[in-house]
Amino acid sequence: MASPSRNFPLVPSSASSSRPQEVPDAPARSQFAFDPIEDALEAFGRGEFLVVMDDENRENEGDLIIAASAVSTHKMAWMIKHTSGYICIALPGSRLEELQIPMMVPENEDRHRTAYTVTVDYKHGTTTGISAHDRALTARALAAPHTAPAAFSRPGHMVPLRAREGGVLARRGHTESALDLCAITGLPRAGVLCELVEDNEEGSMMRRDACRRFADRWGIKMISVEMLARWRQEHEKAGGQSSS
Predict the structure, then answer these.
(1) 116: which DSSP letter?
(2) Residues known to be catalytic
């Protein structure tokens, strides 16, 4: 019997293990604008972070999202630093069932019905599970198609989320956005996500304009959930395809 893997190479293989680099003297914008969706998809497909905003009448929050297969220790450390730190990973329901990861509670009372499951850690090559190294390794292990259920301990420090079948066309959430981005760009269907927070004493949530400044500061593309939904509608209507 083969021993469990202690290392999952980044996917795509060309993905950098380095965290985003701050843009010196990033120019201030005269007015708000999202980045073109095609540019964002190209960046995501290279293993880069995106900032994804949901509707102002929903959570009105910006999440950092990256393919789980592309998360290195350095990227995870940077993500933890600039977010709430409650790092989640979106997965298809079918994969969660294969991994025997059940829902966190029998009755979901979350305002937006975010589908939290039991938390997990990868058992091999990790220590307490909470470090950036351990969480990145757990994320890549969850993204790997052949990792077995017994490779994870429960509870842990990574929070799997069950994405709704149909993606953003069924639910306009960050969970579904993460999975759709992976599917569209041909990466393993597992997306790491967490909410951006302000660097202030209150640790308040980062809203639209602040998210735009953050994205420009770090050279990250910024889109909205609605833009992703429109892209899917237009391309699937033209090509008769589905990324769900």
Answers:
(1) B
(2) 59, 63, 88, 116, 121, 157, 174, 195
Give tens-digit pLDDT for 58-85: 667 899 999 999 999 999 999 999 999 9
| Cβ–Cβ < 8 Å for 193, 182 | no
Q: 0.90 cut: is pTM over it? A: yes
At which residue do the structure tokens 């990033």 appear?
26
Tens-place pLDDT, residues 1-23: 566 777 899 999 999 999 999 99
Helix or strand or coil: residue 19? coil
DSSP 138-181: HHHHHHSTT--GGGEEEEEEEEEEEEPTTGGGT--SHHHHHHHH
Q: Convert 62-111 into a string of H (helix), E (strand) and C (coil).
A: EEEEEEHHHCCHHHHHHHHHHECCCCEEEEEHHHHHHCCCCECCCCCCCC
Closest CA to 168 of 43, 36, 37, 49: 37
